[in-house]
Structures are given as C-alpha cells and as structure tokens.
Design brief:
Layout: E1 3-18, E2 24-28, E3 69-72, H1 74-79, H2 85-92, E4 96-97, E5 114-115, E6 123-127, E7 130-131, E8 161-167, H3 172-175, E9 182-188, E10 195-217, E11 227-228, E12 231-235, E13 237-261, E14 265-276, H4 300-303, E15 315-328, E16 333-349, E17 353-354, E18 384-385, E19 388-407, E20 410-428, E21 443-463, E22 471-487
Parallel strand pairs: 6-9
Antiparallel strand pairs: 1-2, 1-10, 3-8, 4-5, 6-7, 8-9, 10-13, 11-12, 13-14, 14-15, 15-16, 16-19, 17-18, 19-20, 20-21, 21-22
C-alpha cells in the first residue's frame, strides 16, 4: 500500500515576538506543505559554541569535541514547522527515529523514539543537564522499543526549548548504561524579557493509491457474493478507484514569556495546548463477517460497512506547562529551579472483532461438554465490535539546585529533583467473553505509576599543566530512587468468568 499524503498547514503564526520595551513585532513562520520532507539546515550555532553534553570541561566546543554532537538552535526548531519535540528531532537529526505505530495498545498514545537504532531506554534524556524521568508505560507490544520504557519528550513544548544538544555516541562512562545510544540534552529558555506565541492548524489530505475504494461485493446469478478464487476466506470487491481521505485535523496553541525577578533573576514560562483528531489508513475488511450456521447466505454481507478497522494516529488532547528560573545570589553563586506539569488523553482502537469470532460468542448457551460449532453459535453483538482504548497520562517534574565557585578553581553543583508519571487505561465498546451476557462493555483496565527521586552533588576543577588543554578533574555523587506500581482495574478487565474455555475464549 502506497500513501501519498499532504500535510495541509492552515496556519502557523507567531503573533507576539516581544521586544525588550513594550513593542510587539509580528513574525510569521512559512507554511510547510510537507513537514516530513524538511531538510536539515546548516547549524546556526558557530563551531565555537560551547557544549556541555558528554564532557566535564567548561571550554569544550563543537569543533574540538572528540564525539559527534549536534547543536540545534531556536531558529532551526522554529523552521521545522513542527511543535512536537520528537518530530523536531526526527526532522533535524538523521540518527534519531520516531516511528508511529498503530493498534499497539498504550504505545499508540506514548510512542517511543530511538537514537542510532538502539533501544529507547538506552538514550539518556537530560533537561538543563539533569536526568529526565521515564514514562510509566512499559512497551510490551510488537513495536520498536519492545521491553523498554522511554522518556516522553513530547511533553516538552518546542516553544520552551532554547537549544538541543544531541550526543550521537555512547557516553556510559560518564552517565551510566542508559546512555549507550547517546544523550539528548534539552536546554530550556532563560530569557527574562520578551516571548513568543504560536498558533498552528492543519489536516491531512491523503490518497491511498493501492487500496481501492470498495463500493460493494461482486455477486453471482443467485445474488451471493463471490469468494476470491485464490483464498476462499475473502470476498471479491467492487472497486471505484483510489481512496482519498481527509482527516487528522489538528491544532496547537503555545505561549512563551520571560519575566525578570528583580535585577538578578528570571522566570521563563511556557504553556501549550494540543488537539488532534484521529487518522485512518486502514483497508477494507473483505472477510465474511457473519456466522453461517447453515449453507444459507447471510444477506447482511452485501450492505455491511467493511471499513471497520482503524490504523492511524489516535484522537489526542494534551496540555503542558513549563517553568525555568534562576537567581544570582552573588557574582559566584546562583540558585536555579525548573518544573513541568502535563496531561495527555488519547483514544485509539484495537482490532475489529467479527460477528462470527469466538470473542463475540455467547458461551453461556452451551452445555458444559458441548462442542462449539457454527450451528450452535449465538453472538453477543449483532455485527461485531471494535474495542476503543482510552488512555490518560499525567506527568509532573521539578528540580531545584544551587551552583557556584568554592575557591581555588573548584565549582560545585548541588541539586535535587522529583519526577512522576502515571498512565491509566479505560476500554470501551468491548467484552470479556468469559462472562457471557453479564460482561461489561466499558472497563477500567488499571494503570501504571512511575516515580523518580534524584540527588546530585558535583565538583569540578581544571588544572593548567602545560599541556594542549587543561586537565579536568571531576568528583561527585548521585542518589537515585525509582518506584513502579501497577494499579488493578475492574475485576472483569482481567479475570476469567464462569464461561472461560481455554484455547477458545483466549
């Protein structure tokens, strides 16, 4: 199946680019008809730009770094036309991959990204140089990143980011084993004046070239559908050219503003709201949908809507708030703090359950030792059902610290942070077949909880020994505590009912 997709960007505006007095300057980002084809622009950062990722030295630049470090500046971020941090990186960093799986349970709503083709949990994500907590969701589906838990970088608004440093090499010696693939260090904006507001809106107009639009079924002289001669499980369709799909309406509203705290401090605030309607690139299901207790044809097959599967992006509503602040206590000491709060709700679909499927059979009408057959089949729903998975993600994080000069060239950085992520499931329009007609159709399917407490104390110094560069000395300690919990849902969301039959109802 080939997809020819145009991402129609209706509006991308930055109506408030505040100058230092009170004058507003309009700024417009050019439309991006196909944001996925945006080519990386040459870095706006000079090669003399200081980098802090993957080194303990204070004078390391992009040019003299022994490992590859990509530095992405604010203008490059804006010019991508993207608002999701994962998509920004996917556009600008060739080694970064952000797949979009579908029909993958919770991974539809929280999609893991990879660096250099390695597992998502082997990329360390830092915010202002401090470790960011991972999400509570463990990817257990057949998608990229199976068996790992990843950082949800899409909770970090693009408007909040000043620059991104991507270390495309292993850094386990400095950061630990979760930096085998590399390190992504997101630096938040720290301006004490000015700001930016952005409004984007758009939709997809997609032509599905190799999946023709089905308008009916071919029938024989008796008015019965004709089965595919090469596979008698599928009907022969009547087609009417390629499908054109208009869906995925989406919009983003974001605001960033910097405010001074007296003469020596700042607070930089960012808020973002995102909505997306679902997309569907599924083909038509041409399998016989209805049970046939006898050889008689079921006429409902002729007018049954065969576009029941959903394959695409979920319906999403999300918001996030970010705060970055700092205050100079003296010429040598600074106290800093940054925090975030976010929520995402998404609704995706599972596989279509046919009317004739075992998942739709009422086993309560069978005798204890009676063998299920097509003749004694009694459906629980008239045409089958499509389970919908609703996920709610809540996230918060905060870090506070102090850093400065101790004397004799020694620098100190002391910080403490807390991060928490929760992921809850609701399932709608579904059944637990083992409970028969007493099954619920809506379920609280439980949830996951992850928390991280982290404390850092670092000391660094540099000694001039007459070599090409100073000798860097670093001493430090870190304490990290992680918690993981599973919350059970409704009993029927996981229990076996009285009509459970192994190998049939599972």
């Amino acid at each position: 199946m080939r997809l020819a997709t145009r991402a129609l960007l209706l509006a991308t505006l930055s109506p408030f680019a505040f100058a230092s007095p009170a004058l507003a300057q309009d700024q417009t980002v050019p439309p991006a008809p196909d944001a996925t084809n945006v080519q990386p622009q040459p870095s706006q950062e000079p090669t003399s730009e200081i980098v802090v990722t993957g080194t303990r030295r204070s004078d390391r630049t992009v040019a003299d770094s022994p490992v590859p470090v990509d530095v992405i500046g604010t203008e490059q971020i804006v010019n991508t036309g993207q608002t999701d941090t994962n998509k920004i990186l996917n556009t600008l960093v060739p080694a970064f991959n952000f797949p979009t799986p579908s029909i993958a349970d919770g991974s539809d709503a929280l999609r893991p990204a990879t660096l250099r083709g390695l597992s998502p949990d082997q990329t360390l994500v830092l915010v202002n140089g401090k470790r960011r907590h991972v999400a509570a969701l463990l990817n257990i589906n057949g998608t990229i990143g199976r068996g790992s838990a990843a950082v949800d970088m899409n909770l970090i608004p693009g408007l909040a980011i000043s620059r991104i440093e991507v270390l495309r090499d292993g850094a386990a010696a400095q950061y630990g084993s979760d930096a085998i693939a590399g390190v992504i260090n997101i630096q938040l904006k720290n301006a004490k004046r000015g700001g930016r507001a952005s409004i984007t809106a758009g939709k997809y107009i997609t032509t599905v070239n190799d999946v023709d639009r089905v308008t009916g079924l071919e029938v024989n002289s008796a008015g019965q559908p004709i089965l595919d001669p090469t596979d008698n499980r599928y009907f022969v369709p009547i087609v009417d050219g390629d499908r054109k799909v208009r869906d995925g309406e989406q919009g983003t509203l974001g605001v960033n503003v910097g405010l001074p705290i007296g003469q020596n401090g700042f607070v930089n605030l960012t808020g973002e709201y995102v909505y997306r309607q679902r997309t569907n690139r599924a083909g038509y299901d041409l399998r016989p949908n209805f049970n046939r207790p006898t050889a008689a044809f079921d006429p409902r097959e002729l007018d049954f809507d065969r576009l029941q599967f959903r394959f695409g992006d979920p319906k999403t509503r999300a918001w996030s708030l970010f705060l970055n602040s700092g205050y100079d206590l003296s010429a040598d000491w600074e106290v800093y703090a940054f925090a975030s709060l976010g929520h995402r709700g998404a609704t995706s679909a599972a596989n279509w359950r046919q009317q004739s499927a075992a998942a739709n059979r009422d086993f309560s009408v069978l005798l204890p030792n009676q063998t299920p057959t097509a003749a004694n089949f009694v459906p629980l729903t008239d045409i089958g059902f499509l389970p919908l998975i609703e996920t709610d993600l809540d996230d918060y994080a905060g870090t506070i610290g102090v850093r400065g000069q101790l004397g004799a060239g020694w620098k100190m950085d002391l910080s403490a942070g807390r991060g928490h992520n929760s992921f809850d499931y609701q399932v709608h329009d579904s059944l637990n077949t083992s409970f028969g007609p007493d099954s619920q159709t809506d379920f609280d399917a439980g949830g996951l909880r992850y928390g991280q407490n982290i404390f850092n104390l670092d000391f660094t110094n540099e000694y001039q020994l007459g070599m090409a560069s100073p000798l860097a000395v670093a001493v430090g300690a870190e304490f990290r505590q992680e918690q993981f919990k599973i919350r059970p849902g409704d009993q029927q969301s996981y229990a076996d009912g009285p009509y459970f039959r192994p190998a049939i109802t599972t």
